[in-house]
Amino acid sequence: MSFPADKRIDVRASTCRDGKRRMIRRLFMNETAVPEASRRVTIENSLGLHMRPTMQFVDLANQFRSRVVVRKGKHAVDGKNPMEMMLLEAVRGTELEIQAAGADAEDAVEALAALVKSGFGEQ
Amino acid sequence: MKLSDFFVPEAVIPELKATDRNGVIRELTASLAAAVGMDEAQAAAISKAVIARENQGSTGFGKGVAVPHVKHPAVKRIMATLGRSSTGVDFAALDRAPVYIVVLLLSPPDNPDQHLASMENIFRHLQRDNFRRFLRQASTKEEINENIREADELPGG
Question: What is the distance between the alpha carbons of residues A44 and B104, in angstroms, rounded to a whole number?
Fold first, then answer.
């Protein structure tokens, strides 16, 4: 039994409708739609997010115009600020959520998540 | 974890003699080594490693503070101390500004989680404007250590 075609949820269509809704809000309600993106990652290198990887992360985050926030549970820090990033105490196994808001949000979270997954060139 | 768990108060230097980065690292390492009974050869090896680490990337994140550190086999337990410079030291900090408060952190190689916990602790306090201001105004070892004790007693540690 196949699901009727007209009842299927078309992801592209729904995104398109979202886009339209956002545009309408922007036009009539003076709201600016800021693209947002997020990725969940787990710290895999044994030394954790110590200072050198933190600098790599911050340097990469600063290449994007989007605002970058990194969350560990309820604790959220500015992903472009190394001092704040050190407060995450992200040891191996820590789950983080990388969030970005801005025109290049998707590219930013993609690149930052890939950096974390690479283990920062460590084991 | 509290600052007093790994801070060595006797090793605090209220007025650093050295005015350059490597000199400051050597001075603080020697002070820390002497306070915990490490010999001079070990202290020299450790300060060399701290300098090598610092050359890979500045630990001066701005706001007039730097946290030079290293994981070294000669270090048996995590320890830190603090030096203050009233003239300021060039640490090639991110904001290019001179550094007035230097926290030296030495960790054994086999406990990365504890190393990160200590870093978190140090930066949580250094981020507070009041803590940095009090440290910069302190002129004696006792005053600096009192500030460190008081920081530990703040709600949320």
Answer: 27
pLDDT tens, residue by residue, B99-112: 999 999 999 999 99
Is residue B74 within 8 Å of residue B45, measured between CB atoms? yes
What is the pTM (predicted TM-score) of this model?
Answer: 0.86
Q: Is A50 a catalytic residue?
A: yes
Helices (H), chain A: 11-29, 51-61, 82-85, 105-117
Interface probe, candidates B59, B61, B105, chain A, greatest A C-beta count within 10 A: B61
Q: What's the CA gap between B151 and B128, in Å, rounded?
A: 10
Kindly report, residue by residue over A83-93, the tens digit of the pLDDT: 999 999 999 99
Q: How far is CA A116 from CA A48, A56, A90, B59, in A?
A: 10, 10, 11, 21
B7/B81 Cα distance (integer angstroms): 5
